[in-house]
Structures are given as C-alpha cells and as structure tokens.
C-alpha cells in the first residue's frame, strides 16, 4: 500500500504541477493581454470621442477645451493639423511623443489606430484618430498614456502569481505524504477541477471534504480559487460596462446639442446656448468618471458635498428643458408639477447627476407616446420629489435590491439597453449624503415611482 501510495503521490505531483503551470501561464498571459487590450481600446475610444467633438467644431475654443479636459486625466492629448502642425497639447511633449508626431500618416481608418503598444520598452502607449470634415482629413487627435502604471500592475500581478504558485506547490508536496487509497477518488476529482480551471471555466464546483487535514484544506482552497477567479472575471466585465453606461448619457447630450448647433437657421444666441450646455456636460463627465471609479473600487465611500440654497423649481425646470429633446426624440412626454416656490440645500452638480440617472432609467423602460412625470410635494418638514413612469415596472422580488451596487433586474435586457446597476446605487449614495432618503415603489407592467425625501431649508 505504501508503494502504491508513493507511486500515486508522485504521479499526482507531476500531473498537478503540469496543470498548475499551464493554468497559471494561460491565466497570467490572458489577464495581461486582456488588460493591455482594454487600456488600448479605452485610449482609442477616448481619442475618438475627442475627434467626434472636433469634427463638429474644429476651432480654437473647442481645441483648447479638449486639451484642457486632459490636463486632469492620466492621459495626454495632442491635436495637430493634417500637415503635422501642433494645435494644442495637454502636457509637455516628450521625445517619444515628438517622434510619433513626426511619422507620416497616409491612411488611418475612421475608428482610429494604435501607433504604439510596446508597453514593456516605451514610456507611453498611444493611438491616433483622424479628424475628417467634408470627406477630407484636416487633422489628427493623438492620445498618450504613461506605461508606468501598466508596468506596476504587471509587476504586482507577477508577485501574486509567484506567491500563489509557491503556495500551490507547497500544498501539493505536503499532500503527497498523506496519500492513501481512501483519498484517491477525491484527488481525481480535484484533478478534473483544475483541468476545468486551466480551460477558463471558473464556475466549476468541488464537493467539500470536511476533514481538517491538508487534503481538506486543499479542497477548500481550490473551491475558493474557482470562486475568486469567477468573481474577478465578472467584476472586470461589470466595471467596464458600468463606465460605458454612466458616460453614455452626457455624451448623448453633447452630440445632440452639437447637432442642433450646426443646423442651418440656428441663431447665434441659440448656438451659444447649445455650446454652453456642451461645455457643461463635458466638464461634468470629468467629475463623473472620478465618481464611478470610486464607486467601483471601494465598498464604502463618501461624496464631497458643497451645499447651497437652491430654488428647486428653477433647478428642475432647467433640468427638464435640457432633457426634453431626448424624450421628444422617443415620443415620450416629460412633465413637471410643483405647487409653490421651494428652497432646498443641495449640491446642484450632484443632484443633476441624480435626476439624469433617474430620468435615463425612465426613458429606457418607457414606450413611445407614454408619459414621465416629475412631481414635487411637501409638508412642514420635508420635500418629496417623485419621478414617475408608466413603463415596464419592477418585479416585487427585485424591488428591495434595486439600489444595491451592480444589481440588475434583468441582466440580459439591461445589458442590451446599457444598464449596469450603478445608476440607482449612485442616486442612493448622493441622496443619503444630503441627509435624504430615496425609496421605490413599482407595479409590474404599470410603471415605477422613485421618491426622494429631503429636509426643507
């Protein structure tokens, strides 16, 4: 029996080490490649976003504002003409940047191009997006990102993989000394699980061995590893989807008002008004990105609130005017009802974010020719602001969880419509930071009512 256990132990050791090496190799390379690809995709998307704005207004103020937006970001932008003349840059140029800018650009696809992806050896990764007006390329938007953060992330990942690999080998060696015929079947099961993990199937389950020896510990460790890897994969996808969802709304308004501004017959006063809104939304995006990263990375967080006494009726009227074009485009009527002049202490930027999220949800889940109402009521101590739609509604089983971070009522439909489960979580965080309370009531198939309760000033 001892010889058989030794043979099985040696065979298991050799086989498990091979599986672990394959698993860690593919997992490591997959995570690294995926992260680098995400960084390049995000950098190119950011450049395309700037390019889209510049294609509408390729003038000095717009170029200046695009460069100014990047001064507070971890990326840099350089805007040039077709012949390479630099129109604006968000930071001082490095020799590598100048070398890239001097390269000839004969034909660049409309979706942009990655011009530098050697994160291991170069100081920056970079992309370029063409600015095309009337079918002519009039300039380029170059985006740069420092590779230091990427290299630090890869270095940290290597350390974690080395530590986990070392621990896995130690557990394997220890388990050899406790091999018997009784534990042969559990070992085979563990081998099958590790094979699945090496193929990227992190949803596998393992029957837990309740013994307190090394074999039981190894069983629980593999089970925990599968859960952690599955969780990491889901969180990464949800986090990227969340950023896309939260940025989509302000970018939609920027594009919409940019289209309005370039229409024929628009007066100078109207065009200036549209450009002012575009500038406000662009500034708002910078703050919104910071908030989304904070919400996605930490479990408990707080917002910086700058309270001021605001006429709530005027605030809501301005908000409704700004959002009505989006509702009208879908054939939905947006109404505002209030009884008297009301003043509240709020941070206007934060509360605009609250109502943009609420109204965006109502817009998604309402059909054409339906109505969305904003109603303001009050008593001696409190103000109640309700956003009411008559759309799809929320099932009773989901209603208690809709303010939870990353919770989605219908994952398949939410993904198609752009929802990520962060919008209402942000609403709840901001309202509670103001000392208020947000509640929801809904009837499936008849609509949803979200109510915000605030103290009267």
UniProtKB/TrEMBL annotation:
Gene3D superfamilies in the record: 1.10.287.130, 6.10.340.10, Histidine kinase-like ATPase, C-terminal domain (3.30.565.10)
Superkingdom, natural source: Bacteria
Alphabetically ordered keywords of this record: ATP-binding, Cell membrane, Kinase, Membrane, Nucleotide-binding, Phosphoprotein, Transferase, Transmembrane, Transmembrane helix, Two-component regulatory system
Membrane topology type: Multi-pass membrane protein
PROSITE patterns assigned to the protein according to its UniProt record, in alphabetical order: HAMP (PS50885), HIS_KIN (PS50109)
EC number: 2.7.13.3
All copies of domain HAMP, residue ranges: 181-234
Location within or outside the cell: Cell membrane
Chief site of localization: membrane
UniProt xrefs under Pfam families: HAMP (PF00672), HATPase_c (PF02518), HisKA (PF00512)
GO cellular component, one term: plasma membrane
Domain Histidine kinase: 242-457
Reaction(s) catalysed (UniProt annotation): ATP + protein L-histidine = ADP + protein N-phospho-L-histidine
One MF term in the entry's GO annotations: phosphorelay sensor kinase activity
Family annotation (CDD domains): HAMP, HATPase, HisKA
PANTHER family, A to Z: SENSOR HISTIDINE KINASE CPXA (PTHR45528)
Protein known as: histidine kinase
């Amino acid at each position: 029996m001892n010889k058989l256990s030794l043979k099985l132990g040696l065979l298991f050791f050799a086989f498990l080490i091979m599986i672990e090496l394959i698993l860690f190799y593919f997992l490591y390379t997959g995570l690294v490649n995926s992260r680098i690809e995400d960084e390049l995709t995000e950098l190119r998307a950011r450049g395309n976003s700037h390019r889209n704005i510049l294609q509408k207004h390729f003038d000095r103020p717009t170029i200046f504002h695009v460069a100014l937006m990047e001064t507070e970001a971890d990326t840099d932008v350089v805007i040039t003409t077709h012949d390479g003349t630099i129109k604006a840059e968000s930071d001082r140029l490095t020799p590598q940047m100048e070398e890239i800018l001097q390269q000839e650009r004969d034909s660049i696809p409309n979706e942009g191009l990655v011009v530098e992806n050697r994160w291991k050896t170069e100081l920056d990764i970079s992309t370029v997006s063409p600015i095309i007006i009337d079918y002519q390329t009039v300039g380029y938007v170059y985006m740069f990102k420092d590779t230091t953060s990427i290299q630090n992330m890869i270095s940290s990942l290597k350390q974690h993989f080395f530590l986990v690999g070392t621990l896995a080998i130690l557990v394997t060696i220890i388990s050899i000394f406790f091999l018997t015929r009784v534990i042969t079947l559990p070992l085979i099961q563990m081998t099958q699980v590790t094979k699945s993990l090496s193929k990227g199937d992190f949803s596998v389950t393992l029957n837990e061995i309740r013994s307190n020896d090394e074999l039981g510990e190894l069983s629980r460790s593999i089970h925990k590893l599968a859960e952690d890897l599955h969780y990491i994969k889901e969180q990464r996808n949800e986090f990227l989807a969340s950023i896309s969802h939260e940025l989509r709304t302000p970018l939609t308004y920027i594009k919409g008002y940019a289209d309005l501004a370039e229409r024929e017959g628009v007066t100078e006063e109207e065009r200036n008004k549209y450009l002012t809104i575009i500038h406000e939304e662009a500034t708002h995006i910078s703050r919104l990105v910071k908030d989304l990263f904070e919400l996605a990375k930490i479990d408990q967080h707080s917002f910086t609130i700058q309270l001021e006494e605001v006429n709530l009726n005027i605030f809501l009227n301005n908000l409704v005017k700004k959002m009505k074009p989006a509702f009208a485009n879908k054939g939905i009527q947006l109404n505002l009802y209030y009884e008297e002049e009301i003043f509240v202490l709020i941070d206007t930027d934060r509360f605009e974010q609250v109502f943009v999220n609420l109204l965006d949800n109502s817009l998604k889940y309402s059909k054409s020719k339906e109505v969305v109402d904003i109603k303001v009521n009050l008593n001696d101590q409190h103000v109640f602001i309700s956003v009411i739609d008559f759309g799809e509604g929320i099932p009773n089983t989901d209603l208690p969880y809709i303010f939870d971070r990353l919770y989605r009522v219908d994952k398949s439909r939410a993904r198609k419509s752009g929802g990520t489960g962060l919008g209402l979580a942000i609403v709840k965080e901001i309202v509670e930071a103001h000392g208020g309370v947000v509640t929801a009531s809904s009837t499936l198939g008849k609509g949803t009512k979200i109510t915000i309760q605030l103290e009267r000033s």
